[in-house]
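To the wet lab folks,

You asked to see what we're planning to order before we commit. Fair enough. Below is the target structure as tokens, and below that is the sequence we designed to fit it. If anything looks off to you, flag it before the synthesis order goes out.
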């Protein structure tokens, strides 16, 4: 605070035309401007680092990085889960950061060890795309997707597995993650 006052005093004296001791008036002002610019940058960084006010994610969604998720309390099959999410202005989750979502699921309900996400190969066996069109290119658990029994066409997250993604039977009722898309 003293630093601020000293700078403002310096600037005020300079503007008023009073001579400054030591270095020239111009040099003193340039130094003062430099210090002010540094402090503006410092304040900007602090504002950027402030937590989001929560406006990004409407209830009952929660913010995870820059996305909004909801972990269900009920268990439904994949198609029912998708309807449920669409009924809350979202869809099954298509996270850009799978491990951030995984942390969210573990933190929210440690007892939930598998949850439906928004990807399926029902339209073309073996071709895995998120509902937003991106390929499911990474984060598959070892040996997955394996289409076990020729009947695994929906994507779920396994919190106890690493890597964490698995194809599973779409008809199984389990927890799911919805994502709000503004
Ligand atoms: Ca399959
Ligand atoms: Ca599988």
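Sequence we intend to order:
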């Amino acid at each position: 605070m003293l630093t601020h006052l000293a700078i403002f005093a310096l600037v005020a004296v300079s503007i008023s035309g009073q001579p400054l001791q030591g270095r020239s008036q111009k040099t003193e002002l340039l130094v003062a401007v430099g210090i002010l610019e540094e402090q503006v940058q410092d304040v900007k960084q602090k504002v950027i680092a402030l937590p989001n006010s929560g406006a990004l994610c409407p209830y009952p969604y929660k913010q995870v990085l820059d996305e909004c998720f909801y972990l269900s309390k009920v268990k439904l099959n994949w198609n029912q889960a998708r309807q449920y999410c669409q009924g809350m202005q979202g869809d099954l989750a298509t996270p850009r950061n799978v491990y951030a979502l995984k942390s969210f699921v573990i933190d929210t309900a440690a007892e939930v060890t598998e949850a439906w996400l928004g990807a399926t190969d029902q339209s073309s066996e073996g071709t895995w795309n998120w509902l937003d069109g991106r390929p499911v290119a990474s984060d598959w658990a070892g040996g997955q997707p394996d289409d076990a029994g020729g009947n695994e066409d929906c994507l779920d997250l396994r919190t106890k597995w690493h890597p964490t993604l698995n194809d599973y039977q779409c008809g199984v009722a389990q927890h799911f993650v919805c994502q709000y898309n503004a």
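Structural context that might help your review: The helical segments are 2-15, 25-49, 78-86, 98-108. Residues 110 and 159 are 9 Å apart (CA to CA).

Thanks,
Computational group
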